[in-house]
Inverse folding.
């Protein structure tokens, strides 16, 4: 069985390639230089090379603040490319598993968002991702869209790596404490994406639609930073105090939702996937980045 992974060099793409797939699965993960997913002819040609059992798309324009001034590029990658992928996979009756974001929500809701809650993006990134979702939803009936959030891993740039780096450069950190969300391990997300791709590949009647996939629980960026540095200290790494600040004290080009906590209930109901808590997932990443927990 052949599976095509797009954006294979990204955080999630890297973990998809590292995932323990069942025997008989062959992965194909071209980087963006060998397959630019905004190029319709190139996507069609890639899909013609063999009969893929499923296509997984974690590729995206993920620079949330840069997107505010690089609007066309963000829309090309986050909206046009999913439309191309949906059209070309639908033409071949190939399931498409697509990754989206909590930033499709405006953050004014209380509690945990269900997948069918109304979207109302407040940033270019969120709007372009919401458009990409719609293109997938309407373009290929055999789709699963997994919205995720606050993705971290040992790879590339992400919040865990930034906090560890800054703790080595400063005596204390100030981090936003009024945005609530769900930290998510790229490895755990990759496991869910793989399981769902295999479901859709093996069963034309498998559940389709939009699902939320984040680690269990929720925190603020400040709470997340404190957990990262406490975990670093337990492993003999550096730790500094973290002071909570309001979003208003840390202006950024893109507006971010104050609450983007996502409910994974329908992921569990449809696929039997129940993500573990974010703290355990963070421990695995810190083990890789800092080292094992020290006994004293
Ligand atoms: N990171 C987060 O906190 C977060 C939160 C919510 C949702 N998400 C979603 O989760 C997914 C995966 O995120 P991530 O953190 O793994 O992203 P990432 O590390 O930024 O990876 C994105 C990948 O897309 C590739 N790419 C860029 N332009 C491309 C093109 N034209 N054709 C093909 N590939 C192209 C990039 O290539 P290069 O390697 O050459 O740059 C990169 O490998 C995305 O859909 C994102 O919107 C992420």
């Amino acid at each position: 069985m052949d599976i095509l992974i797009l954006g294979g060099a990204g955080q999630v793409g890297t973990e998809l390639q590292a995932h323990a797939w069942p025997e008989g699965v062959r992965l194909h993960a071209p980087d963006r230089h060998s397959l630019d997913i905004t190029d319709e002819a190139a996507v069609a040609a890639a899909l013609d090379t063999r009969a893929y059992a499923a296509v997984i798309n974690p590729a995206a324009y993920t620079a949330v603040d840069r997107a505010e001034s690089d609007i066309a590029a963000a829309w090309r990658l986050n909206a046009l490319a999913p439309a191309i992928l949906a059209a070309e996979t639908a033409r071949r009756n190939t399931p498409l598993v697509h990754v989206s974001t909590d930033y499709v929500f405006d953050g004014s809701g209380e509690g945990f968002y269900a997948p069918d809650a109304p979207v109302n993006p407040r940033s270019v990134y969120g709007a372009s991702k919401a458009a990409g979702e719609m293109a997938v939803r309407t373009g290929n009936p055999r789709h699963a869209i997994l919205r995720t959030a606050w993705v971290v891993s040992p790879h590339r740039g992400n919040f865990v790596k930034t906090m560890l780096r800054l703790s080595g450069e400063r005596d204390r950190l100030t981090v936003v404490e009024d945005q609530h969300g769900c930290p998510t391990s790229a490895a755990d997300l990759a496991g869910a994406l793989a399981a769902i791709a295999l479901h859709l590949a093996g069963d034309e009647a498998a559940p389709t639609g939009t699902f939320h996939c984040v680690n269990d629980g929720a925190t603020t960026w400040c709470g997340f930073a404190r957990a990262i540095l406490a975990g670093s200290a337990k492993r003999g790494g550096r730790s500094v105090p973290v002071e909570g600040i309001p979003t208003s004290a840390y202006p950024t080009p893109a507006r971010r939702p104050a609450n983007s906590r996502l409910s994974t209930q329908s992921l569990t109901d449809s696929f039997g996937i129940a993500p573990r808590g974010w703290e355990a997932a963070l421990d695995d990443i810190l083990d890789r980045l800092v080292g094992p927990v020290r006994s004293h």
Remarks:
- The pocket of NAP is lined by residues 6-7, 9-13, 31-32, 36-38, 58-60, 62, 77, 99, 101-102, 129, 148-151, 156 (CB under 6 Å).
- DSSP finds ten helices and twelve strands in the chain.
